[in-house]
Model the fold of this input.
Amino acid sequence: MYNIIMTAKGATDMKTVIVYYSLGGFTKKIAQQLAAKTGADLLRLTPVKEYPNEGAKKFIVGGRAAVAGSKPKLQPYHFNAEKYDRVVFGSPVWASSPAPPIRTFIEDNRDALGGKELAAFFTQLGNGAEKANRKLAKCLGKDKIEPEMIFFEPNKKDAHKEH
Done:
């Protein structure tokens, strides 16, 4: 299931970075597993003001931010776009959208992302990843982002699904 990122467009020697946001740890786990399998570098995005991680507030605050298309300020990070041929975005699904820190990264690096091969994976409890992928593509000025992978939180009947 991991080879799909490394074989996109037939290229196996492309330098890849996985740019991800993880609140509860599941997206981080998947990003680390993909990086270990593919040799990709990792870049974790961390907002200056972190989102609530439990209870109803987690869904209300995060969902509202995602629907509003907010772009939270991020902790400093280093991204040298010239080093990479491919950027893979990893995000939990919030209200059928990518998590807001992904939007901030795209806004901060829009010009540097031009000409890069782009891919995405999403983690979710229920559904909405297909819509989140379309919103990510639109944010990047693309019609589609492929390959797309969707991972369901542990203990779900369908552990993962690839598109």
